Amino acid sequence: MSSVVILLLITVLPAKDYCRQVIFDEALRYYRVFLSTTPSYEVYYNAAICALASGNVDECVNLFKNVPRKKTEVDYYLGIAQYQRGLYDEAEEHFHSLLKKDKTLWQPYYYLGLVKLKQNKIEEALRYFDLVPDSEYKRRLVAYIAGYNQLIEAQEKFNQGLYDDAITLYEEIENLFGYRETGLALSYTKIGEYKKSLVLLDSVINYSTNKQIIGRCMLEAATICFSLKNYAKAQAYLKNYLSIMTSDAALFLLGKVYFSNAKHDSAALYFGLLPDSIDEYLFYKGRTDFFLGQWGNAERTLLRHREMFPHSSHGDRAIYILASINFARKEYSHAVEFWKELVEYHPHSVYAASALKKIGDTYFTLKDYKNALDAYRSVKHYRPASSIEEETSLKIYETLYYLGRYSSLISALRKFVEQNPRSTLVPKTRLRIAKMLFDRKYYNQALAELNNLIHDYPDTPLIHEALIERARVSRRTGNINEMKNSFHYLLQNRDAEEYYSYAANELGSIYFEESNYDSALYYYNLLLNFDTYREKAMLEVAKIYDVLGQHKEAETMIDKLITDFPASVFLFDAYTLKSKAYKKQGDYQKAITVLEDLMKKVGEKPEVYLEIGNTYFEIDDYENARTNFVRAGESFRQRRDEAAKALILAGDASIFLGDKKSAVDYYIQANMIAESPTLKGKATEKMSTITEE
Fold this sequence. Notes:
The chain is mainly alpha-helical and 693 residues long. The protein has 39 helices and no strands.
């Protein structure tokens, strides 16, 4: 037997066997070997069918090129192959060619129907399917086509803006899971039914197996959440989306999410991944750099944006930011040029009125009050927002003062209040008038203005600031009761925690100064619940216990302060208070130990040395007292008067030790370094007393 025959047997026989077992990959492998040695039409034909069955569509088409078209089945398989390649016109040609050879076949009609479906020619597809024998699969396919047809109709209604009609059609569709829910969700979004929309989108995300549809739903859900300012949920959708696929739209939306959360660094990171060739991408890059304070980058990006997209819908904002950058740099002429350009080329922009106001502000800053007034008066012609209109109106009165229309700024502001009684800026302006009166020491007028403001606008957001200002005036005039009343009023309005705790702290301080310790203790105990004031409150409570002779309670509170706040700014005061408490109990050694512990925590501090020196002095241990006084003097360094005081104390300790020579030396040093004439005189007097003796 020849070698060729042997090769034929060992390749063809296994190949046919694998074909019978529907193991087409293995069959194709054997046919490839045979084609390299002894090719024939039959082998090409069989190899092509195996390639098609195993998914190697391109190889199938190439192999069929070597097979004569006389064989009827060739057109059938080539038609299937071209259909799978997405070449529907070529597939159609093959199926029509097959029907010319044998009109009894129904399979070509089936595939022609599928081709027409792909070409979105539904009616033609149905005509072909009518020629296919009835079966369960055909019935499901026809039902699918009906649903698909209805889906197209619903999409057309959606595109026409007939969202209720679209919803009705989408709800009637029984098949096409994912497509139906997505369309329905988008329609609900258009009519503001966001909750229903998100439920539908989530159902697709959780149960669909179509990666593309899932991604689309995640992106749509993120867009809805972003529009509802639910940035955390929008971010979660986008993160999940980017874990399975990527798109510029998702990256851009995620950047906007971070930008809206004022996380400009993160926003810049995502915007940086986007191409500069898209209008809004480039604009947001520049805008984000501006908010990051990277003005140079922002300016370069936005100038490039102007060149690339001269008709951009973001053009007005880009110009506004460019003007703001120049204003911040105090390049006022450039700022005014940009704002004027915005008004000229975008007169209907929502930024036009603001730009004119900014032009006025710039001239006002330059003390060019005439041009400032002209700009302010032009604002009303550009449909300003109410807030800008009111602010501009107020600036007009201020500008008129500088142009000599009013005798004082207070008079100008009062005129604004008189002529604009319903303006939301009236409370703020009246508060400003009161502060100006206070600064000019017109305390009674300031107090009257504040009392009227509080009476006329009890619900204004400025009520807390007005009360604090009234307390400040009352303190200056010595009206303690009025000051208390202001803080009590604040405590009754717990809208803002910062004001509540501030008022409690002030009342605690007032009552402590008045030696009304029970009341002081009450307010400081209130402050123990506020993190901002907790440390100080603990110290003040300990002080009160100490004054009341409740030394154990004072010690307990101090220990808690030290434990809870080991780096507290009140650490020195706490240890000092604890040391004094021990001294009051007659335990001077413990008092000294506490101060030494403080030294270990805060390092060598002259105030601690001074306190230790005083404690030793009280128990007549003058040697240790002098040592610590000298150390305090050396540690005070540039605080010359404090160092002089410590040296005078060192001299006093030396006197008690009988060391007059050292005492004179310390007094001389104190006299030399002291800046205060009083201290110099005190040191001289002590030195003279010793000399006379």
